[in-house]
Design a protein that fits this description.
There is one protein chain. With 176 residues, this protein is of the alpha+beta class. It folds into two domains: 134 residues, no CATH class; 34 residues. The protein has four helices and three strands, in the order E-H-E-H-E-H-H. The protein has a three-stranded mixed beta sheet with strand order 1-3-2, with helices on one face. The longest helix has 30 residues. The protein is elongated. Pfam families: SURF1.
């Protein structure tokens, strides 16, 4: 357990397509006191002659978003390696088919070396079931376990033995 004082990408789970254009909101139970940076106001500087004609100062407001601390329980992950069947990500339309941490970070205005965390919080609010978090067991279990390799081996060897047996039987029938 450690504390990070920089922006991170957090995958909280699956949400319906209708949520695509919703702004990011933090639920009330996760929100902690935030520190809001001050608003910067600059007055325009003009020559003495024009000062008479333009008495109103030109205000340029530079307001940064509020900084909010949030506690996340999750697993630190890296980018995924897509197979040849996975389409390419389209950052311009915000369509992500696989996790590419540097590309997602840049699209969000964050540095490429941003930390990526998959949320494993199992406390789903029944009144608001989204986002649907990933099952903790799938995060712990590797996608291809040794038992799977053994199953694949037995399947393919038995299939090849069956095909060999059928081919030999067929060839012997033709000789008679």
């Amino acid at each position: 357990m450690f504390s990070v004082r920089s922006p991170v990408l957090v995958n909280r789970g699956w949400v319906p397509r209708s949520w695509k254009d919703k702004s990011l909101q933090v639920s009330d139970d996760e929100q902690q006191p935030s520190s809001k940076p001050p608003v910067v106001v600059q007055e325009s500087k003009k020559s003495q002659w024009w000062r008479f004609w333009s008495r109103k100062p030109e205000h340029i407001e530079d307001e940064a978003p509020a900084i909010t601390s949030i506690e996340v329980i999750g697993v630190v992950r890296g980018s995924e390696k897509p197979s040849i069947f996975v389409p390419a990500n389209d950052p311009k339309s915000s369509q992500w088919f696989y996790v590419d941490v540097p590309a997602i970070a840049v699209a969000c205005g964050l540095p490429e070396n941003t930390l990526y965390i998959e949320d494993i919080n199992e406390n789903v609010n029944p009144s608001n079931p989204y986002p649907v978090p990933k099952d903790v067991n799938t995060l712990i279990r590797s996608s291809v376990m040794p038992q799977d390799h053994l199953n694949y081996t037995l399947t393919w060897y038995s299939l090849s033995a069956a095909v060999t047996f059928m081919a030999i039987k067929r060839l012997k029938q033709k000789k008679r």
